[in-house]
Write a structure and sequence with these properties.
alpha/beta; 35% helix; 21% strand
Length: 224
């Protein structure tokens, strides 16, 4: 029986790739990639020539049974996302769950994920926190914000640049514009930037400075 390897890939700087991750990608019979074009750049950089197969949120339900069959046949398969650790706001959970059900070994390597460096560098307590990922875009969004307004732990969100200002404004509306927060963008890239301050200050900043790059928002908990 083969093994499924969950392999984190850099969220920015390619030097964040581990030696073990490179070795396992070279050894795998097949690499499941969220976007084969994006992963192709990574593989070329590390001279990895293994076969890739597209695996993303639009085809994972159809693909998973075939993947399990190949693992049962003895093939080692690696799963990567475009950046970071698969399963964290990216495809991965479904195939892991089905492998566990089928008794197939699953091994997840430690490695890059965007929210950890953002959380640690925020200056906001990180001993206890909750990870929310992306807020619902429509249905359930306001309900979720109302619930999180009472959360006493530090809260971590992911957000795209064109929704950052809207999200910060809604956080201020439901949690108070004096709530302290930090935004971190372009983690481990050339233009990495962390902004810290109250929600009101961050709203003012991004009203003048256009948000660019993928964001992590770290928000202090209630009374934190």
């Amino acid at each position: 029986m083969g093994k499924l390897y969950i392999i984190p890939t850099p969220v920015g700087n390619l030097e964040d790739m581990t030696f073990r991750a490179v070795r396992l990608l070279k050894d795998a019979v097949l690499i499941l990639a969220e976007d084969t074009r994006t992963t192709g750049i990574l593989l070329k950089h590390f001279d990895i020539q293994n076969k890739m197969q597209s695996y993303h949120k639009f085809n994972e339900h159809k693909a998973v049974s075939h993947i399990v069959d190949r693992l049962n046949a003895g093939e080692d398969i690696a799963l990567v996302s475009d950046a970071g650790t698969p399963g964290i706001s990216d495809p991965g959970f479904l195939v892991v769950r089905e492998c566990v059900k089928a008794g197939i070994d699953v091994e997840c390597l430690p490695g890059a994920t965007a929210f950890v460096p953002a959380l640690v560098s925020s200056g906001i307590p990180c001993d206890r926190f909750c990870f929310e990922g992306f807020l619902p875009q429509k249905k359930g969004r306001i309900t979720r914000l109302k619930i999180l307004a009472e959360e006493t732990r530090t809260i971590v969100f992911y957000e795209s640049p064109h929704r950052v200002l809207k999200t910060l404004t809604q956080l201020a509306e439901y949690m108070g514009e004096d709530r302290y927060a930090a935004t971190c963008r372009e983690i481990s890239k050339v233009y990495e930037e962390t902004c810290r301050g109250t929600l009101a200050e961050l709203i003012s900043h991004f009203s003048v400075n256009e948000p660019r790059g993928e964001f992590v928002i770290v928000l202090s908990g209630k009374n934190g």
